[in-house]
Amino acid sequence: MSSHWIPRPFIDAPLRGAAGLGLNPHHLWAAAGLDPAILNNPDGQINANDYASLMAVLWAHSDDELMGLAPVRSHSGTFAMMCKAIISCSSLEHALHRARRFYALFDGAPNIRVIHGPQLSRIQIEHDMSCDPDHFLSESLLAIWHRLSSWLVGQGIPLLSVGCCYPPPAHAVLYQNLFATPVKFNEDSTYLLIPSRVLTLPVSQTAASLRAFLNHSPADFLARPNPHESMTGKLRQLFRRYDIACLPDLAHSATQLGVSGATLRRRLFDEQTSFQKLKDECRLEEASLRLAQQDTSIREIAEYLGYTETSTFHRAFKKWMGLTPGDYRSQQQGIRR
């Protein structure tokens, strides 16, 4: 979704939801003007523009902004009315609380909650997942609320981590591009972890800017890179251009990002992370990719990532993912069966 090419799981899931509403995926595909050969190819992908068109067609034909992935429909225009209700709020926290009150008017709608802490806070998203077996609605709500929040305050909100109250899906590796932050599975709730200070940021958008914004949203949230990406997100994207064994140092990374080393260090500190912490997290993300394959031993993965002791890798991975490397590999193997 943050990639310019949309992976197949993010195409198939909303089409399955639409089919559950009685719509024909092939007709939706044609209405969006897309090549039918791509739909018939199990590995076919589409670009961001085509994906935005497909989502707009799906919402228009289904009259359901939740895409058939919730027990009740959220009729077309609901998201726009919610945005109009919160645009006059004084701060991000005020806007999130008003959004919660807005959606509480509709039975079965997702619930948005702010769990406030002294340093870290959660934007918690609660919804009935019984109609969302692929977790696409969960993924979409997380992405939309992070990007909407960033747009409201006119700057990238640092995303410290994402929590999902479900096991890693078969396409969990795609979360790296979607969220550009560590994702924890089997959590007690589904949430975005952010610095508490951003909740006090003023809403900088206006009714005029909202009108332009609604011409392309929320479809663009799902299809295109985040224009308000934080420095943490930018650095993660930079790291992904390199082999894990050859990640750039701070000075080179700063040059690539167009800032000084001191500025990069300060921006990361403001976002409650550090250069070394992000490097370590990228190593663990690479570990999850390799563990999903069965042809490399855990010892070999640890060595490839630069761990001199396999036990150190075990501890680091479990702290990050909540599972040992062996348990994670077994779980991924079971998902694919």
UniProtKB/TrEMBL annotation:
Could you name the domain of life of the organism this protein comes from? Bacteria
Q: Which residues form the HTH araC/xylS-type domain?
A: 229-331
Q: Which UniProt keywords apply?
A: DNA-binding, Transcription, Transcription regulation
State whether keyword DNA-binding applies. yes
DNA-binding listed as a keyword:
yes
User: Entry's Pfam families?
Assistant: Arabinose_bd, HTH_18
PANTHER family cross-referenced by the UniProt entry: HTH-TYPE TRANSCRIPTIONAL REGULATOR GADX (PTHR47894), HTH-TYPE TRANSCRIPTIONAL REGULATOR VQSM (PTHR47894:SF1)
Q: This protein is called what?
A: AraC family transcriptional regulator
* The organism of origin for this protein: Thalassolituus pacificus
Q: What is the lineage of its organism?
A: Bacteria, Pseudomonadati, Pseudomonadota, Gammaproteobacteria, Oceanospirillales
